[in-house]
Amino acid sequence: MDILGIKFENKKVVYDSNVHTLLIDGVLPEGVAVKYTNNSASEIGKYNATATLSGQNYNTLVLTATLNITPNLSQLAII
Question: Coil, strand, or helix at residue 45?
Fold first, then answer.
């Protein structure tokens, strides 16, 4: 059986030294679990995250999204 109704979307944030995390959106069917890979970061850069959803009697679903942390241009020093 396929797992339906789950989203894992890209996210763009401005650097603020806090940890930012990508999470799935939607309700997991009973018995389905999610395992994240590389879905949290705090430094400037692009991070390719994976959410793998699996459960007994369900087809495994692998979703990917990008967390993009951009520089805070208002805090850059002007020389």
Answer: strand
Instruction: State pTM to two decimals.
Output: 0.88
Strands (E), the chain: 11-14, 20-21, 32-37, 40-41, 45-55, 61-70
Q: What is the pLDDT of residue 78?
A: 55
Overall size of the chain counted in residues = 79
* Distance, CA of 19 to CA of 3 (rounded, Å): 29
Quick check: 14 and 72 in contact, CB under 8 A?
A: yes
Alpha carbon distance 77, 79 (integer Å): 6
Nearest residue to 22 (alpha-carbon basis) of 56, 2, 51, 55: 51
3-state class of 71 per DSSP?
A: coil
